[in-house]
Structure formats: C-alpha cells, structure tokens
Design brief:
NqrM
Length: 80
C-alpha cells in the first residue's frame, strides 16, 4: 500500500507541474529552429506532403468554416 501511495503522489506532482505550465501560458512545443530545412535538407514532410503552404491554407480554411458556423448559430445569451 505504501508503494501505491508514493507512486500516486509522484504522478500527482507531475500532473500539477504540467498544469502550472498550461496556466502560465507557455507557448506550445514547437520545432527546433527550422527543422530539416535549417540543415539544408529539403525533404518532403509526411504531414504536409511536400506543400510548404499547407498549414497556412488549412488555417485560412478553418477560419472561414468557423465564420460560416457562427453565421448559422444563434446566441441566446445576448440581449437585444
């Protein structure tokens, strides 16, 4: 039972430390200074499929779909 309590306490401390990082608003984990292209290695990324502008395109598409969703919704909490 003692081992269980020690392990539980350690896990609780780890979760607490991670939540403090989120609360303080640390920036999300990011790549290291340019990744492979910083090394001069132009390789196709498995995620983007070789299209370097895919992230920007997806972000713009997400903004447009969110705007469309807001037009379809009705906020009953607003007065007036």
């Amino acid at each position: 039972m003692y081992v269980f309590l020690v392990v539980f306490g350690v896990m609780l401390l780890i979760v607490l430390a991670m939540s403090i990082g989120v609360i303080l608003g640390r920036k999300p984990i990011s790549g290291s200074c340019g990744g492979m292209s910083a090394l001069g290695m132009e390789v196709a990324c498995d995620i983007c499929g070789g299209d370097k502008n895919k992230c920007e395109k997806e972000t713009e598409a997400a903004k447009q779909s969110q705007a469309q969703a807001e037009d379809l919704a009705y906020d009953a909490t607003r007065k007036g």
